[in-house]
Amino acid sequence: MVDHTTNKQPERDPAVTAKKRRDIRNRNDIVGRTTLELPSLSGLEPMPLFPPKQEPAPAPHLDAATSSPTISAPKEQAIVSAEPPTDATNKPPIPLPQTTDARLRAVPARPVPNQSQQTSGLSLKEITGQTITGQTTSHPLKRIRLRPLLKALKAGLVLALLCIIIGGAFAYFHISTSVPQASNAITLHQRASPTGQRSGATPGESSIAVGDQPIIELQGYRGNVSIAAGQTGSIFIKTSGDQTTNADNLHYTQSHDEQGHDLVRIINQAIHQSINYEILSPRATEVRVTIDSGSIAIAGISGVTILSTNGNISVQDIAGPTNIATRNGDITLNSVKGAMTVQTSSGSIRGNTLDGQIKATTRNGDIVVQHGTLHEQSQLQTQQGSITYAGTIATKGDYKMSTQNGNVTLTLPATSAMQLHANIHSGTLNNAFRTASGPHAQVSINVDSGSIIIKKAT
Known about the structure:
The structure is a single chain. With about 450 residues, the chain is mainly β. It has 3 domains: about 20-60 and about 70-110, no CATH class; about 155-330, no CATH class; about 335-458, no CATH class. It is about 15% helix and about 40% strand. It has a 13-stranded mixed beta sheet, with no helix packed on it. Strands 4-7-10-6-12-14-16-18-20-22-24-28-26 form a 13-stranded mixed beta sheet, with no helix packed on it. A two-stranded antiparallel sheet has the order 1-2. It is elongated and about 170 Å long.
């Protein structure tokens, strides 16, 4: 027997159904209004806390007469009503989904803006602390570009180094072409006289009146110098040059030194200008010549001081102290009396009829003295060359002679008394004198490679 009963919906209480509908409407309204404004990050858009539920399609109504399977109605449906929403301020907060909570935790917190400031959404640049057009963060980071500064410093250092090199080269060139200072150079102490005269000079002839024992100082760069004895009471100067000689660079100055002697200065201020000098002065004149390049010849005066760089030097008939120093050139002395100090770097030293204390020094060259009379402490020294001396030696004198490569030959009177101290590294010794028992001179000779020959004059 078949039961054809009809499946009927259970009856519901109208009051309960209306309350459920109001609750559903209130919840949907809160969900619809409760959205979270997230920062406008790249790829993220504001979204509601709860996605809106889609209402299912209404169940089809089945006729009681049909025999199809029974379809149960949904438990609850969200029925949208036109009634106004109820106040939900006193409702408890609705928990957020886990995905939305994680997103909020990933976003850094931002400071609460002041009420006076206009609130606006933060951008990614503001959150990361970078500068926005027209606005900066509270502590902006400024990037200092050091590479251009380092390049500028390097360029400055290179320029300074080049200036130092150029200045050093110029100074070296100037010093190398300047006059060498002799170790025994005489220091000049002079005082200009208020009544001193000063006049310009031109290449030609000039005459200057002087008193007894005048002093001539000549300072030049290039040119030949010739000074000889002339008339008493005047100095005659004759100069000559080439077509490029400028008369404004040559000056004469006359004054007095501390002893009251006339001091005449002849100065050529042009470095590359060549001027030749011919001077006649009183016999009692003291001459001081400083010149870079050129030959120098002085004769018949009382004292000589010469400083030169390149050129041969010759002095003759000098009655006073003689001081000569040059770098490249030979030195010749004839009929010179008094203390003599001569030195050259590359050149020979030759003397004839010398009477006094002699200190002759050269590096590359021979030392030859004929008809000499040595006194006190005389020295003849060379490095590459021979030493030849013919003359007399004082009994109480102390004499030293040395060479590295060369021979030492002494020719002395047979009556000479001396004690020889010879030192030879490689060579021979030939001494014709015996050691004296009475007053005698001390003679020391050092030879590295060479011979020592001491013989009697015939």
